[in-house]
Amino acid sequence: TEAWRPDDDRTRPASGPVRVRVPAKINLHLAVGPARADGYHDLTTVYHAVSLCDELTARPGDTLTLTMAGEGTGQLALDDSNLIIRAVRALAAHTGRPAQARLHLRKQIPLAAGLAGGSADAAAALIACDALWGTGLTRDQLGGVAAQLGSDVPFLVHGGTALGTGRGEVVSPVLARPTTWHWVLAVADGGLATPRVYAALDDLRAAGTAPAPLAAPDDLLGALRQRDPRVLAGTLGNDLEAAALSLRPALAATLAAGTAAGALAGLVSGSGPTCVFLAGDAAHAAALATRLEADGGCRYAVPVHGPMPGARIA
Ligand code: C5P
């Protein structure tokens, strides 16, 4: 059974607009292997979906159009290069439907921030058009289309807290207590291009100046089965952090400001430049965000919580 829509509805086209909410992701653990022949890196990662969300609305149309408002408007191309448009075309090809929809994106997740915003929007487009067209794919079938679009897209279809392997596209849920974790995202001015950050890690490793790679995430997976953020704090890690810091040295000051403000832990999110801080509870996260806005050297800081469900009809 599929949680996001009653079974008997999934193969009927929607009668009105379909609105989908999709979360941003952080990586609680991101272990990066050597570069592969196809240019990707093998990963072991623990994804975690957090409550900073984009919203995609799909309406019936004779063509495929995309408009947007909010974060990144004017900086994000809305043509065929946009991952939302590519997702709709991939779903249309997979299901034999014409790629027709009028899409509107309300964006809060910043661009090129290490939060997988573009991947989130692609996941939202798959869920939205599946419902709009009544193609009734299972979440696993949608995950298969998602994997063609980008390494993080399958996770954003599934959400929660999940182990990612392969280049990140092989996703399996992790056993965790039903606990809410509280975080602060410190969003930097300007983005970082993901391929540059992976290449910078390859360079640091070739020069022998990269930190030792992360071991298997056993301690993290153990901490997720407890409820103590102090235990979780000691188990977070990201191999891309040194690379992001080499490209953006100012992030070190943001990380230091979070620690000085009392964060239980701080690390770079994914390929950065967003920094993420673990808080003890919601009030602690709100206080940390206020402090980071004042002296964290970031564009803004926002308290979030996780895990959140993946892309789903609002
Ligand atoms: O899969 P996605 O298109 O999101 O990846 C963007 C870029 O990030 C890739 O082209 C590659 O340079 C880098 N990447 C990588 N190894 C991964 C995931 C991404 O090198 N596992």
UniProtKB/TrEMBL annotation:
Q: Which GO terms describe its biological process?
A: isopentenyl diphosphate biosynthetic process, methylerythritol 4-phosphate pathway; terpenoid biosynthetic process
Catalytic residues as annotated in Swiss-Prot or TrEMBL: K25, D152
Keywords, comma-separated and alphabetical: ATP-binding, Isoprene biosynthesis, Kinase, Nucleotide-binding, Transferase
The entry marks the following residues as binding ATP, namely P110, L111, A112, A113, G114, L115, A116, G117, G118, S119, A120
Q: In which pathway does it act?
A: Isoprenoid biosynthesis; isopentenyl diphosphate biosynthesis via DXP pathway; isopentenyl diphosphate from 1-deoxy-D-xylulose 5-phosphate: step 3/6
**Family matches, as InterPro entries:** GHMP_kinase_C_dom (IPR013750), GHMP_kinase_C_sf (IPR036554), GHMP_kinase_N_dom (IPR006204), IspE (IPR004424), Ribosomal_Su5_D2-typ_SF (IPR020568), Ribsml_uS5_D2-typ_fold_subgr (IPR014721)
Ranges of residues in domain GHMP kinase N-terminal: 82-160
- Enzyme's top EC category: transferase
GHMP kinase C-terminal domain: which residues?
Answer: 222-294
The GO molecular function terms of this record are:
4-(cytidine 5'-diphospho)-2-C-methyl-D-erythritol kinase activity; ATP binding
Q: Which EC number(s) does the record attach to this protein?
A: 2.7.1.148
Pfam families membership = GHMP_kinases_C (PF08544), GHMP_kinases_N (PF00288)
Provide the reaction this enzyme catalyses: 4-CDP-2-C-methyl-D-erythritol + ATP = 4-CDP-2-C-methyl-D-erythritol 2-phosphate + ADP + H(+)
Q: What does this protein do?
A: Catalyzes the phosphorylation of the position 2 hydroxy group of 4-diphosphocytidyl-2C-methyl-D-erythritol.
What family, per the record?
Answer: Belongs to the GHMP kinase family. IspE subfamily.
Question: What is this protein called in UniProt?
Answer: 4-diphosphocytidyl-2-C-methyl-D-erythritol kinase
